[in-house]
Amino acid sequence: MRFPQKRVVLATCGPAALATASTAFLLWALTGCLAQSAEKTLPATRPVVVTAASKFHSTVEPILQARCYQCHAGADNHTPVAFDALKSDDISGNPELWLKVLRNTRSHIMPPRDQDQPTPEQQLALENWIEFSAFGVDPDHFDPGRQTIRRLNRTEYRNTIQDLVGVDFDVDTQFPPDDIGYGFDNIGDVLNVSPMLMEKYVQAAQTIVAQGIPLNPKVMPVQTVVGNRFSDSHPVTTPRNANSTDLSFYIDSTVTHTFKVPIEGDYTILLDWNVKGAFNFIPARCSINYSDDETDLSSAEHVWHDDFSGSDEIKVHWSAGKHPFNVTLHPTTLKPSGAGLLSFRILKVQVKGPQDEAGWSPAPAYKRFFPRDAIPTDPSQRREYARDVLRTFATRAFRRPVPDETLDRLTDIAQSVMDTSGGTFERGVAQAMVAVLASPRFLFRVESAEPAIAGNPFINVDEYSLASRLSYFLWSTTPDDELMNLAATGQLRQNLRAQVTRMLADQKSQAFVENFTSQWLQSREVTSVAINPHEVLLREGITVPVANNSVPGPIRQALLQEPDAVFAYIMHNDRSVKEFLASDYIFLNQTLADYYKIPGVTGPAMRKVDLSPGDLRGGALTMGATLMVTSNPTRTSPVKRGKWVLENILGAPTPPPPPDIPPLELAAKNITDKTPTLREILAAHRASPVCASCHDRMDPLGLSMENFNAEGLFRDKELDQPIDASGQLFTGETFKDVSDLKQALIKNHLPEFYRCLTEKMLTYATGRGMEYYDMPTIDKIADQLQQSDGRFSTLLLGIIDSAPFQQRRVK
Length: 811
Fold this sequence. Notes:
Helix content is 40%, strand content 14%.
């Protein structure tokens, strides 16, 4: 079902969310961009009614009479569709009907396998009429479709903030999860904004600016050492922890670390410590003394605690040079008999200074935001400098040049803070930056188009919009300087190939690998799906400790990385996407190799491993993540696995099950002489005509994977019976196991796979679900894949060059 068109409505945030009146002033005043939020769904304007009807009667109707009337015509027709009773509106004004016909005939669902199928020529004629007559698509100008304004999702927000400000903001805890549409979390129709979320965005903007924007050109130097960097002046018998030094309450001891200070001045020493003892009270005491090379600085007595942390602050005046800082422990009571361990733990020591600003260091990020050597003293020049700084920042944040009126408002905010008591130039600019990050122009990907051409209902998006589409598609983040500069000079389109090559070579393209792959294959669910190894292995006659009732986290992370590594390998080496169906290699690290029981792999990095002849792995169907997320907690689920193949590989999803379907196991109630296998249970379930129509398609696909249990591990028996993974596709091809199935898919079903993968990636790239008018675009790219033997570059460039990616409708 298509998601309904929505106009984004943003409510004004409550005053509690706004730090200052200036932030409230610009939060919604900065932009009128939401007026262009969502395009109306307009049909193509070319007159197709007469052509569609005449071609239907001459070309399509005879095909339907020969192949479809047996079920979809006549007085005994009990289906929702009657082809012999079509009205003129059904022929030229009912694209949803013909989209179903297109999908069902392509997927070989209709006509049923036991009836005569359309010839290739008939199928092609039917498809051409549907796409270019019933759908009304101009073959010379494909429809780019509607586009809802898109909010940045959590991943895009985090990456954009990292690139823009240098702050790694924790979106997972600060923002709610993004809604999912069409299988992806970047769909404009479902990325809504509630008043509460808007308040969170304002709070986030304040936090990000406070962490990332330096308010002083210089910062006080800080030297930090962890506790285990202290060396022993006298033996310390208490074991050291990873980052700390432990001093026993019962032994005189001294540890020291030498700090080098550049100039004479006042310094502050901050020491973080912890007293760690047994749970039961120990009546021991000790004194801790701090000293440098000249004087005792401070001392205090410490008593038992099972786990207590604190800190001490010491002021010193040091000359330039090296100064030891000593920590001495002296027991003040004898060790009680039978007492357990009790220690004073040095966690971290910081030396801050000198206190005089003349000795401070340049702030690392200051020049990034404030490039001039000095802030002008003249008020008009200060304002102009603030305007320049904000123009640069807001242009990057808004992903296009900032209108003068918006820049004036931002500068007014900065000026209002500068004019207050205690206000500084940097504080004023920082407050305006808060406003930028809370603006809809930042939170939403606002797009514009090039000038319209008379009579053309479609137009290219402008180059700034194209830069954003490209960057968020391949990097999940804002365009970098090179993309922005090319867009500013109108040279991005003519350099598009070179930019795609550059962007894929950049490490940021890993975001595309991870975000697309994990949602297309649903592998991201492997980190949380419930699996009980104890119950799973019991079905194979293997007993494991009851405590082992979950797959460990490191294994789940390795399973998540496997499909990403395969996708990256195919992408970066421009290999055939057929290798997603079947390959003679997999990617493993030591954790995953040990899990799969494949020897010879060491280390944490994923690497390509060639499979032995006859190994059933290789390709997406038999990756551990795929097998695990399509299982039940205690056993495999051939139904889930078959449904996964239909939806994510063949693009032929099944309808939802009818209501009140009883549990699958009840289908085996008449099998009393033994414990039935899943194959036998499913066979009994399919005996019901209501269930057979879908299960005849799903079950053989899922049963082909039965050599892998719910954990994704190979097995050859279940319930002490040999695994039978053979079957027959709904199109008639037989196979003996999942490896045989993969070859059948490659031999006979590549067009379906090419169309499915294209539709998934085009959905991800455009942030919307595919509609009937997108079918010609998908077919064109799939045809190009067929001609190039499935090269990945053909898929990627086909999407980037397509009308939905490059254009928009004229409103």
